[in-house]
Amino acid sequence: MPATIGQLTRFASRHAEPGILVLPNAWNAGSAILMAEAGFEFIATTSAGIAHALGVPEGVLRRDEMVAQVAHIVRAVDVPVTADLEDGYGPRPEDVATTLAAVIEVGVAGANIEDSGVGGDPCLIEAERMCDRIRAARDVIARTDRPFVLNVRTDPYLVRRNSAFAEANFAEAVRRAGAYAAAGADCVFIPGAMDAATVERLAASIDAPLNVLGARGGSESTLTIADFARLGVRRVSIGGSLALAAMGLVRDALASMREGDFIFSQGAPTNAEMDIVMSEFASRSILNGTTLA
């Protein structure tokens, strides 16, 4: 269900309080329900996970398709949801404004927009152009008169992954983070930097709450939530990594079936157990005047 004003205020205030905010990333209503059941006070979405669950690569879904998926997730749970909106779905500031208005309408508590495209050869949007997009988003948020967290992602570490660019990526990430915060970002998200030394330098060099990826598909990072908190990170999310892990489990199960056994089902919840969980959250949605359709 859409978050209450009290929940929205709590989500926004957590970015300014001591300690670290941990966000799991949902890819559909069912995964979001499991996250809420596990006790997470806030949930993010993953654009990659949503796309893969629908059978397409990241970056293919249109604005209306992504907003519809986010709406399903918002309606399924009684905790605030912040939406991954990729590059804002269009090159102009007006496009970003339209996207923000659409997700605010379905009841999200916050949103990410990023400064690179997705697909074959992503590149960084010029910083000033990105600032224009942030200001357009901020104008829409201001007109709602409700708490909202705008988390802006900058991608030097994803666009140039070679370690030879490490210092250049650091400098560019810090430069852009400062510009984005000045333009209206409440939090700055810098994925791709997974080593402790770099994360600590970023946190110390940026005058805004820092969001990093705590997990990434294929990453061998061993940093824990406690490590990120010690390094000065304010917010940690997991992107599409949990959705990818679920896809990996399906692959492994299918390989097991091809070999002639069904051991993948050992330890899995029963239908009855899962129905109880889903029914509880469906009942909450109905009681609060929302539907899952």
Could you explain how this protein is built, in words?
- The protein is α/β, with parallel strands linked by helices and 293 residues long.
- It has one domain (5-240): TIM Barrel, CATH 3.20.20.
- Helix content is 50%, strand content 11%.
- The protein contains twelve helices and nine strands.
- Strands 1-9-8-7-6-5-4-3-2 form a nine-stranded parallel sheet.
- Helix 3 runs parallel beside helix 11.
- The radius of gyration is 19 Å and the shape is globular.
- The two termini are 12 Å apart.
- The model has no long low-confidence stretch (mean pLDDT 94).
Distance from N terminus to C terminus (CA atoms, Å) equals: 12 Å
- What Rg, in angstroms, do the CA atoms define? 19 Å
Sheet with most strands:
9 strands, parallel
CATH architecture: Alpha-Beta Barrel
Tell me the strand percentage band. 5-15%
| Portion in helices | 40-55%
Cross-sheet strand order for the largest sheet: 1-9-8-7-6-5-4-3-2
- Helices and strands, in order, run as HEEHEHHEHEHEHHEHEHEHH
Structural class: alpha/beta
Keyphrases for this structure?
293 residues; TIM Barrel; 12 helices; 11% strand
How would you briefly describe this protein structure?
The chain is an alpha/beta fold and 293 residues long. The chain has 12 helices and 9 strands. The protein has a single domain, classed as Phosphoenolpyruvate-binding domains (TIM Barrel, Alpha-Beta Barrel), CATH 3.20.20.60.
